[in-house]
């Protein structure tokens, strides 16, 4: 069994137990994994906690604490073994096995998701793609034949689907969610712009692109408003002349 040394120099046995890992840590593990993949692609075999933390955008103390929940400790003066840490984080996240995924909604967003090659390399297989539009059903998208949404329950059972992705308009998202849950799917990724109602024991992750853009607009506005003051402090009060402050229009603010 693989073991590393704790910062104190004491050896610790790695058991890979994920029990008791805080949700905040779980949320950061995919970020660490992405950073580790980037290091591996550059041929880096060991990484210091400070370097990995910088790549992931967190402080090194938080990173070390997060990884300690996995039973992983870097070796003083050496750091973490990149390949082994990739395996360790992947195993904790459940990515050492393939997860069949069904995408409901074959519009522009659904097509983009189906064509994204990163799913396969990260442990996810798009098992089926569904839509209710007869003009789309039967067409080929990313080597998949789009099936009618009426087949949802049968396809979930046949492919043992673990994760459902909802890429439909808001008006039909709740009904699709209800059918996925009834079919036994307990993990749902929702791109529709509404909050889904699900029973206890069903996990939903919501991705709302309009909300993310509005948050970015907020920060852009704050930065722009601070620039005239910065220019004045540096003895150049006219540096911001002609610069307009971006604002969120009422129409944009009302969305999402």
Q: What are the SSEs and their pairings?
A:
Elements: E1 3-5, E2 11-13, H1 23-41, E3 46-47, H2 49-56, H3 60-68, E4 80-81, H4 82-93, E5 99-104, H5 108-115, H6 118-121, E6 124-131, E7 140-141, E8 144-145, E9 147-148, H7 152-159, E10 163-166, H8 170-182, E11 187-190, E12 203-206, H9 209-233, H10 250-254
Parallel strand pairs: 5-6, 5-10, 6-9, 10-11, 11-12
Antiparallel strand pairs: 1-2, 3-4, 7-8
Helix pairs in contact: 1-2, 1-4, 2-3
Provide tags for this entry:
3 domains; Arc Repressor Mutant, subunit A; 6-stranded parallel β-sheet; 43% helix; Rossmann fold; 10 helices; alpha/beta; 256 residues
Give the structure's gist in a few sentences.
The protein contains ten helices and twelve strands. It is α/β, with parallel strands linked by helices and 256 residues long.
Instruction: Write down the secondary-structure element order.
Output: EEHEHHEHEHHEEEEHEHEEHH
Secondary structural class: alpha/beta
Distance between the termini: 49 Å
Measured by DSSP, the beta-strand proportion falls in 15-25%
Largest sheet descriptor? 6 strands, parallel
List unreliable stretches of 5+ residues.
1-18, 237-256
How would you sum up the global shape?
Answer: globular
Tell me the name of the CATH class of the largest domain.
Alpha Beta
Number of helical regions: 10
Identify the strand order in the major beta sheet: 9-6-5-10-11-12
The overall number of domains is: 3
Overall pLDDT? 83
Write the CATH fold name of the largest domain. Answer: Rossmann fold
CATH architecture of the largest domain: 3-Layer(aba) Sandwich
Quaternary assembly: single chain
Q: Give the helix level as a range of percent.
A: 40-55%
Number of strands: 12
What is the fourth-level CATH superfamily of the largest domain? NAD(P)-binding Rossmann-like Domain
């Amino acid at each position: 069994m693989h073991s590393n040394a704790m910062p104190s120099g004491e050896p610790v046995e790695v058991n890979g137990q994920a029990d008791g890992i805080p949700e905040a840590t779980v949320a950061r593990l995919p970020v660490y994994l992405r950073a580790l993949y980037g290091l591996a692609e550059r041929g880096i075999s060991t990484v210091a906690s400070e370097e990995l933390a910088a790549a992931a955008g967190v402080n090194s103390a938080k990173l070390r604490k997060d990884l300690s929940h996995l039973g992983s400790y870097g070796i003083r003066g050496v750091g973490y073994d990149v390949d082994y840490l990739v395996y360790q984080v992947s195993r904790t996240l459940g990515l050492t096995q393939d997860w069949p995924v069904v995408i409901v909604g074959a519009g522009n967003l659904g097509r983009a998701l189906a064509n994204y090659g990163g799913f396969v390399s990260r442990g996810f297989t798009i098992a089926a793609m569904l839509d209710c539009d007869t003009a789309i059903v039967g067409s080929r998208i990313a080597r998949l034949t789009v099936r009618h949404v009426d087949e949802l329950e049968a396809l979930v059972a046949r492919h043992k689907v673990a994760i459902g992705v909802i890429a439909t308009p808001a008006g039909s998202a709740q009904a699709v969610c209800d059918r996925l849950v009834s079919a036994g799917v307990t993990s749902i990724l929702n791109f529709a712009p509404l909050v889904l109602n699900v029973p206890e024991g069903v996990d939903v992750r919501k991705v709302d692109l309009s909300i993310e853009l509005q948050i970015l607009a907020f920060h852009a506005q704050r930065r722009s408003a601070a620039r005239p003051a910065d220019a004045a402090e540096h003895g150049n009060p006219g540096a911001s002349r002609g610069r307009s402050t971006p604002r969120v229009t009422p129409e944009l603010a009302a969305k999402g």
